[in-house]
Amino acid sequence: MNVVTPGEKLTAKDFTSDQEVRWCPGCGDYAIVSAVQGTLAELGVSREKTVFVSGIGCAARFPYYMATYGFHTIHGRAPAIATGIKLTNPELDVWVVSGDGDALSIGGNHLFHLLRRNVDVQFLLFNNEIYGLTKGQYSPTSRVGTRSPSTPMGSLDNPVVAASFALGSGARFVARSVDTLRKPLSQVLKRAYEHRGASFVEIFQNCIVYNDAVFSSFTAKDLAADNQLHVEDGKPLLFGRESNRGLRMKPDAFELEIVTVGENGIVEADVLVHDEKNHLLASMLAALQPPAFPMALGVIYCDPAPGYETNVTAQIEEAKANSPAADLNALMRQGHTWTVKG
Amino acid sequence: MPTISAVEHDGSKSARQPLESVVVRFAGDSGDGIQLTGSQFTQTTALARNDLATFPDYPAEIRAPAGTTFGVSAFQINFGSRQILTPGDEPDVLIALNPAALKVNLATLKPAGLVITDATVFTDRNLRKAGYTANPLEDGSLSKFRVIPVDIARLTLEAVKDLGLTQKEALRCKNLLTLGLIYWLYDRDRQPTIDWLEKKFAKRPEIAKANIAALNAGHAYGETMELEGTVDTYTVPSADIAPGLYRNVTGAEALAWGLVAGAKLAGLKLFCGSYPITPASTLLHILSGLKHYDVVTFQAEDEIAAVCSAIGASYAGALGVTSSSGPGVALKTEALGLAVGVELPLIVVNAQRAGPSTGLPTKTEQSDLYQAVFGRNADTPLAVLAARAPSDCFDVAVEAVRIAVTHMTPVIVLTDGYIANASEPWLIPDADGFAVPPVEFRTDAESFHPYLRDEKTLARAWAVPGTPGLEHRVGGIEKDFDTGNISYDPENHQRMTDVRAQKIACIADGLPPLVPEQGNKKGRLAVVGWGSTFGSISRAVSNLRDDGVDVTHIHLRHIWPLPSDLGDLLRGFDQVVVAEMNQGQLLTVVRSETLVAAEGLNKVTGQPFKISEIEAAVRTRLES
Ligand SMILES: Cc1ncc(C[n+]2csc(CCOP(=O)(O)OP(=O)(O)O)c2C)c(N)n1
Ligand code: SF4
Ligand SMILES: [Mg+2]
Question: What is the pTM of this model?
C-alpha cells in the first residue's frame, strides 16, 4: 500500500501504482498517464483525496495505474458514477477518464448531462477515433470513410466534434491537447484541475495498433507548426512556423479566415485575440478542422460558474438551517395522528 | 405533538344499523376532487377509531377529457370494527359523480349495494361521452341496486349561492357536499374536516366557507332523507386496536422514513438517485423533501445514471438508493452487476407494475420477482426483500439497510403500486429502536486490501476515498481473492464466484425463525404469499379458520435468500399453495429451493386478489 508521511512532497512516481500496465507498446495512453502523474505531483495534490473514475475501453484502464483511489466501472457510465461520488463528498478531486466510444457513443447522454449540470470533475476524453479495446471498429469520432472490421467499405456516418459537443452541452471549460505534447498537455491539465465546475479536456491519442497516425495532419513533426493553433487567453490567434499566420473574421461573412501578417497589408492587430470567455469564438475555434484550418489546442473556453455539487450542498444547508432540529420521530408524528387508549 | 383522541359516539341517534365493516368507493372525473374526498373520509374514519385500508385508483391518463371513462378517478376505503387488511373486494356503496364513473365502477358493486349519483350531470351529452345509449337511472338497468340520485351540482350551487363565488368555484365544492352526505350516512363527525378546510383555505376564507356550507348541506340533505325514511343509516363501532399513537401512512412514506431511519442508525448519509416512473416516483418526491435529514436526492437523466450515481455515492461512503419500476429496473441491470462485483451496499426499490413493457402502468402486479432474483447476466446474486403492506415498508426498508451494510451487497426491495400509494393506519414506531449496526469504515492501513472479508458475514472491507493510506482500485474486472488486484486466473474466478454466492446465502443465517402468520405449523394446507397479497390471504385464511377449516398462512419477507427453515415448515403440510399476482414466480423459486411440490394460485388482472377467490381456491383444494 501507499504509505506517505504527511507533508512530504510527492513525485510522479508516488502517483504510479504497482500494477502492470496492459496497453500495447507505443500506445499514446502511456504518454498521457505519465503526464497526469507528473502534473498531479506538480500540483501537490493528495493521493487520498484523488479519485479516478472510468468506464470501459483501453483508455478506461487508466485508474489501475494511478496510486490514488480508482473506480473502473461500466461502459459509458463513468459520468453518472462520478456525479454520485462528487455529490456525496464534494471534497474529493474527481477525474473521469474515457474513450471516444465510451464518452460519445454509449455514454453520450451521461456526458451531456454531466457537462450541462456542471459537476466539478475533470473529464479527460482520450480520442483515438476508434474502438481500441474491441479491436478496431470505427467510433463516433471516426471520419467518414474509415475502414474498420465493421465498416469494410468505409464508415458512412458523420463524426461528432467532441469539443463542439461539449460546448453545445453547456460545458464551461473546454480544452484540447495531444498525447505527446507533454508541456501543453500538462498546462491544460492544470487549468482543468483549477477550474471549478466540469472541465472537459479532449486529448488526441494515437492508437498505434488500430488507427495509427490518424492525427498526423496536425501532429506529424513537419506539419505540427503549421497546423496547430495553441490558443491563449488575451493573445492573438497566431500559428505557423514563423508565427505569422493568424485568424480573423472575414469582413463580409460571419466566419473565420486565415491571414498572414505582413502580407496584403495585414498587421498583427488585424488578428483576432483569444477570449476564453467568448462562447461564440470558442464554438468557431472548436469547429476548425485541418487541413483547411489549424487544429485549435489549449484552453478554448473557460467561464466558471458554481458547480452542481456546490449548489446541491447549499440547498441541503439551507434546508438544515430552516429546520435545525431534524428529528425523524417528530416527523413521523406530524400531521393527523390519533391515540388509541389501552 | 397534535394528537386527537378517538371520537366518542353517542348512541342516542335514531335506529342506526351497526355494521362490522363497510366498503365505500368514491368515483368521479379526475377533476372532481375524488382523492381529496377519500382522504378526508379516511382521516375522519380513523378518528372514529375504525380500522381501515384504502386504495386510490388513478386514471392512467394525466388529463383525460372530462366525462370519459378513462378519466375516471376512484378512491376505495374499507373500514370496520374488526381488523381490516385490504381495501375490500366489492363496495357496499358506490358514489359515482358522473355517468362515466358509474359505468366503470358498477361491475364491482355488491348486489343490492347503494349507488349515490349526481343526477344533474346525467345529461344526454355526458351519457354519450361515457358510452351509454340510454340513461341508466331511468332504463331499469340498476334495478338490483339501491339508487339515490341526488342533484349534487344543483344543491351545491344552492348551498354556496350567497358567498359570491364564480359558478366554476362553486361547483368545485361538489365533493364536499358528497362528503357531508356520506358523513351523515355513517354518523361521522364533520368537525375535523371543517377545521382542516379552515386551515387549508386560511388565505381565502370565502372558499373555506363555501366548502363548509356544502359539507353541511350534504349532511342536512341526508337528515331530510332520514326523516322521510327513504334510506337506512348506519354506524360502524370502533375497532379493537392495539393502544398507542397512530397515523395514516402510505407505503412510499413509510419506505422513505425507513430508509432515513436505517441510514441514521448505520451512521451514513442517504443518497437517492432516481428517474421518474409510475408508481415509483413518490419515493423520490418524499426523499427530496427530507434534505434536512442529510438526504441527497438526484433526479438523473435515466435509470442507468440513477443507479450509477447511487453506486458512486456508496463508493464514496453514503448509502446509495435508487428507485424505479420494472422497466426502469431492467435498465439498471448491468450496473447491478457492477455493484455485486465491487461489493458495495445499495438499495434498489422496485414499485412493481403490470407488464410486459409499459403494460398497465397504474395497475398492480407482482411479476418482477424473477427479475429481482435472477435477472442479471452471470452468477450475480444479491438479496431480495418484499414489503407486504404500506406500513410494513418501514420495517422492510430498515431491514434492507441492515442487510446491505452488514453484508456489503445490493438489496432489491419489492413493493408495488398498491403498497406505494395506498395508506393504512400505522402504530408509529420509535425510529431509533431498530437493530442496524453502525458502519465502521476501514481506516487501518495495516495489511489492508479492498477484498479483505469479515469471516462471518463475508462482507469486504469498506474503505472510502479520502482515507489516507488506503488508496486502492476496484472495478468490474474479476479481483484476486487474496489481494483485490485484477485477476484473470480461472481458479480464482471459481473461488470469487463461490464466495459471492456464500455471502448472500449466509444472510439467511441471521434471520429469525419463520413463523406462520396464522394457523398451525403442520396441517392440511398452507397458503404461502409475499408482498401485497398479504391482506387478502390473511382475511381469507382467518375467515376459513373461523369456519373450522385447517389452513395456515405463511408470508415471506425474505425472497432471496429464502429463510433456511422454509423447506421444513412447508413439508409439514399436505398441500402448499403459493398465491401471487403473476404466473407463478415465487412458486418456481420455492419449488426449486425446497423441492416441495407446491401449487400456484395466480391472478394478473391488475386488480388485487379477492378474499372470496382465495377462500374458494382453498376450499376446492381441500374438498377434492
Ligand atoms: C455494455 C457494453 N457494451 C459493449 C462493450 C464492449 N466495449 C468495450 S470498450 C468498447 C469501445 C471502446 O472504445 P473507446 O471508448 O473509444 O475506448 P478505447 O478502447 O479506444 O480507448 C466497447 C464497445 C462493453 N464492455 N460493455
Ligand atoms: S489498442 Fe490502441 S488504444 Fe488500445 S492499448 Fe493498443 S494502442 Fe492503445
Ligand atoms: Mg477510442
Answer: 0.88
